[in-house]
Structures are given as structure tokens and as C-alpha cells.
Amino acid sequence: MSIADSYDAIPYESTPLPETHPGHLACLARLYGIDSVPPTNCNVLELGCACGGNLIPMAARLPDSYFLGIELSPEQAQEGSSRIAELGLANCEIRQADILELQDEGLRFDYIITHGVYSWSPPEVRTRIKELSSQLLSPQGVAYISYNSYPGWRMRGMLRDMLLYQVRDILSPRARLDAAQNYLDFLDAGLGGSEQALLYYLKDEIERIRNAHPSYLYHEYLETYNEPVLLTDFISEANKHGLDYIVDIVLEMQFPGYLGEEAERFLNMIDDPIGRLQQADFLLNRSFHQSLLCHKARQPSRSPDIQQLRNFAWIADLRPPKKLDLRRNKPAPFKHSEGQKYEIAHPLTKAGIALLTDYFPTPVSFAELVSRAAEWVRGNGGDHFAAQENEMLNEMLMLYAKGILHARPIDMVGDTVGLPDWQMDAVARLGILRGDGHIPTIHHAGIHLDQFAARVVRYIDGSTDKEKLLHKLWEDFKPEGDLAGLVDSRLSADELIAHLDHHLERLLAMFRKHGVLG
To answer: Which pTM was predicted?
Structure first.
């Protein structure tokens, strides 16, 4: 069976990948000395785009840029093309094609995205990906390639070997997937209460697979090809094709201090920056990379230019503590909407992050942010700290590296065009109508929806309001409705209405917060 056949039989879940957004790639490249093209007017190529779950939302929100997706699976390419046509996107195209047969048509791309393809393809395709990344990349272009890596993937490879053994005589993709899922249940039960460290790893991995989309299990563990590589080998091969390594998407891992003081001392003894990164991979037992490449002639820096942070627009969603101390350089807990807590210390940074949360989801330029934060700090008696912009930049860099702060180039500072009242984002609604289990936010993250949330999205068609919406939901959740099993059957009609109203209010607020509902 060909790779295209398996992806037709079990389509990969096609979701927005925030780390591949041109705005994010542009900032990382500029941080390391590459004068990347403004995302608001660029050309983007995605190799292996599935049905466009990553490409289409970007095209819809960047109308002056051009997006081309290449997909091997005919069914997924057709689905993506159908969505583009229904949305009326003139700046986006998905073509069914084999990467091996893709030709240079003269167009150059400022951003090339290859996610979930490189390690999962035969050697000749991996070579062709690097060739195309070099040939088709514009002079200031940035190429993103994800791949499984050693040493960490040796552990997952063990589970892959076990699963491939179980399905060795099964040809049908669906039957292979069913057999693999059954074996995971069997293996999990068989591990029982064993306290061997290796078996703890297997149980954790089984749980992780169960929480993922079924397509992940099939294409990560049951496909013919899955070839991890060492980071240094990947970079060496890229060099042979005229490409150079810029940085990895997981920025935090570029800093030795991430691993603790002892590891930092060890890594700082290594002069070669690429060799240092490889040793960090060994210490972390790292299994996955998302590397950015550029033309070798661009000569990227091996360390970040912190002053570049002044040229970014910033986004954050971190709730500050009720009493925010802006008179002392003392850590304070900020809480993300998903529950994680982060310590932020410098008064100027604390004020800045609190302001960003008030502005969310609108990006704010550093110049405006530091001006307003300094005014706030001075007003609270922290005059000494109000002028310490470099201290703020240092702390912001660490928060950015951890993925707590998000950045866009300064020319995207107005990147939050509002929607009319009671209008759902067209890409989000079409996806739900086509059977997706997620919607893309205004900043290209994915929100997974339960049945209730998906039904709400279906009903918001531009002609509804809250009262009409609540009535439709009440019909669905009544004892004879098709969603009745999702609520307590003992609720009275009034109690049911109150229950639905409460959850609807929270859901609508979340949609509006993430820019997908007017």
C-alpha cells in the first residue's frame, strides 16, 4: 500500500500549528540576525499540507500573502481545495502532487513549512525536501522542518517495533489501527503494577497515544517509514544543500541554563555552538525537533540579539495576582487561563504582562508597552525600576523562550480585525460543519471543542442571537433531543435552561476572547 493510500484511508488530523505561523517564524529569524520578509506580504509553501488545517486559517487572516499547499493524498487535497473554494480565498491553493515530482516554476517562497513529513518519508523524499527548501526559498526566506530525533526516539522506537510486530500480517490501514489500539490496551494491562523504570515509560507513552487523535497512532507508529536523525546530522545534510541552521522552535532549549547549573557548566565548556546543542539533546533525551533553516549566505547569528525584542508586537494571556507589587523586584505568580502558574519578578515586566493581558488578543508594540508599564510603575512608587528597560528585555526573552509570551513583527500590530456581532469566524465554522473537532483562534492556536461547543458553532450562522441560540440548544438537550445524554436527566426545564445558559455564557466569552466570534 502506498503512503497516499494510507493517508486517504486514515486522514491525518489537520490542525493549526501556531509554531509555523509566518509571524512567529519571522520573529525567531530576526532574533538570530535574518531580516525576514514581513508576513503581511509574503509567499508561503507548505509541503504535506493535508486538507489545509494549518494553511487555510493563515491565508484567511493574511489576505495580501500567497499560500500554496502540496499534498500527496488526493482525497485530502480535494477536501482542502473544496474548503478554499467555499471560503472564496483567492490567495490560497492546494495541489495534489508528489514531492519527488515537484518542479521549480520560478516562484520563490519566503516561508517553507514541512511539518510531519521529513522523518516519515523514504530517503529520496527527505533529500528532495532539502533540495526544494534550498531551490525555492527566497533570499531572505526561512524554512521550517520538523523531524524525530535521537536519542529520545529510541525509546518510542521500541514501542513502534512492538506495534509493527502485532500488525505484521494485516494489510488494511483501518484493521491495522484497530489491532494496534487493542494491543495498547493489552500491553497496558499486562504491565500491571511493575515498578521497572522502562515500564513506567511505556505506560506514560500509551496514555499519551490514547489522548491523541487516532491518526497520530497510525502515522507515527505504523507507517513504513519513521527515521529519526541526530540534530548534527540533520544540520550537516542541510549544509550540503546550501542551507544553514538558524534556531529551533523550542527556543528555551537553546539556553544551557534551562538544564540547571551543573549542565550549564558542562555545556559552556563546549566551544562549538552546534555541538553544544547536540550535547543538550543527549542530556534531555530529546525525541523531536522543529528546526529553522536559511540560505548559508545569510550567516545567521549563533546567539540572540535581545534588542530585536523592541521591534516586536507582544501577546500574553496571564492573569496577574490581585495585589501586584510594582515597588520591588520580587517574583509574583501569574496564572495562564489553562491553569499554569509562572513567576515574573521585575516591576516593569510585571506591569507589562498585566497590560498585555488586558489588551489580549491584540498585539502591543514594545514601545507602547514599555511606555505604559513605566508610567504604571512610577505611579506605584517604583521610579527606580521604571527606566530599567534592559532588565525588562532580559526577563521578556526568557518568558518568550518558554512560550509564555508570544511575538509578532511590528507590522502586525493591528492583526486583530473584529467580526460583526454574532458572526462566527468563517474558517472555524466551516471546519466544524465539515467534521473538525477544533477551531483556529485569531493567533493560529487550536481550540478543541466538545459536542456542546461544536453545536453552538453550527448554530451561529449570522442570523441568531443568544435567545434564539439558547432555545435551539434547549431543544437539543430535552429528554427527546439528540444531546440529551450529555446532561443530568433529572433536571427540570427551568434548571436545564439555567444550566445551558451558564455554559453558553462561558463558551461565548471564550470564543470572543480568542477572536473567533463578534
So the answer is: 0.92
For 264-276, the pLDDT digits (tens) are 899 999 999 999 9
What would the pLDDT profile of 60-85 be if each residue is shown by its tens digit? 999 999 999 999 999 999 999 999 99
Q: How far is CA 54 from the centre of its chain?
A: 9
- Residue in 493, 420, 412 with CA at minimum distance from that of residue 41: 412
Separation of first and last alpha carbons in the chain: 46
Kindly state the percentage of the chain with pLDDT values over 70.
97
Q: Residue 344's closest CA among 413, 275, 402? A: 402
Contact (CB, 8 A) for 341 and 335? yes
Question: Residue 312: which of 240, 239, 400, 196 has the closest Cα?
Answer: 400
- Alpha carbons within 13 A on the beta-carbon side of 82: 12
User: Three-state SS for 167?
Assistant: coil
The pLDDT tens digits for 288-301 are 999 999 999 999 99
Residue 444 pLDDT more than 80? yes
Q: What are phi and psi of 331, to 5 degrees?
A: -60, 140
Which residues, including other chains, have CB under 8 Å from residue 316's CB and lie 6 or more apart?
353, 356, 357, 360, 404, 405, 406
* Mean pLDDT value across residues 402-428: 86
Q: Are 287 and 155 in contact (CB under 8 A)?
A: yes
- Work out the pLDDT band at 469, boundaries 50, 70, 90: very high
Question: In this structure, are residues 84 and 109 in contact, taking their beta carbons and an 8 Å threshold?
Answer: no
* Three-state helix/strand/coil letters over 45-102: EEECCCCCCCHHHHHHHCCCCEEEEEECCHHHHHHHHHHHHHHCCCCEEEEECCHHHC
Element (H, E) at 240: helix 231-240
Q: Give the residue from 173, 162, 159, 146 showing the smallest Cα distance to 207.
A: 159
**β pairing state of 312-315 and 406-409:** antiparallel
For residues 51 and 54, give the distance between their C-alpha atoms in angstroms, rounded to a whole number. Answer: 8
Q: Cite the beta strand spans of 106-214 per DSSP E.
A: 109-114, 137-148
Beta strands in 347-405 (DSSP E): 364-365
In 3D space, the residue among 257, 178, 185, 162 whose CA is nearest the CA of residue 218 turns out to be: 178
